[in-house]
Amino acid sequence: MKAVFYLFVFLVLLADQLTKLLVVRSMTLEQSIPVIESVFHLTYVHNPGGAFGILAYHTWFFIVVTLVVAVMILFLLRQFQPMSYWLTLALALQLGGALGNLVDRIRQSYVIDFLDFRFWPVFNLADTSIVVGIFLLLWQLVRMPQEKGA
Fold it and tell me: Is 116 a catalytic residue?
């Protein structure tokens, strides 16, 4: 199961970095391309903060927090073996997403965002991976007591 974990981490990190590279190479900063007019756009922005742009320009804070979270995820992976497929996937999505944004912060002190649903702040694949991973983790934690009693 660890091989599956590391494969998903790698795939999330790769997809995140490749999509950001594509955006940087094919768009100009602040450019917005409607995919579905007034619903979904590709909008290239730099985010020097965290979620919703909070704590902008506190790059070292986000680097340290990300490293702590990464160590915690790896600790959980080691402590709770064997893990269900869904729990493994949840942690891999979170780690892959965290590493994707970490690479941006280390390289350029900001995160590249480009997915724009117009009613929500612009985000990227790493952010999506983290959120999906958190929801999967919560779903697994809610199901665990039921599975043991069955």
Answer: no
User: Going by C-beta distance under 8 Å and a sequence separation of 6 or more, which residues neighbour residue 137?
Assistant: 87, 90, 91, 94
Q: Show the CA angle centred on residue 49, arms to residues 108 and 15, nearest 5°.
A: 60
Domain that holds residue 28: 2-144
Give a yes or no: residue 130 inside a domain: yes
For position 50, what pLDDT does the model report? Answer: 85
The answer to whether position 149 is within a domain reads no
Is the pTM value of this prediction over 0.85? yes
Catalytic residue among 16, 104, 116, 127: 127
Choose between 144 and 74: higher pLDDT. Answer: 74
127 noted as active-site residue: yes
Question: Is the pLDDT assigned to residue 99 strictly greater than 80?
Answer: yes
CA–CA gap between residue 147 and residue 7 (Å, rounded): 27
Q: Over the stretch 23-56, which tens digit does the pLDDT of each residue have?
A: 999 999 999 999 999 999 999 999 999 887 788 8
Instruction: Give me the number of domains the chain comprises.
Output: 1
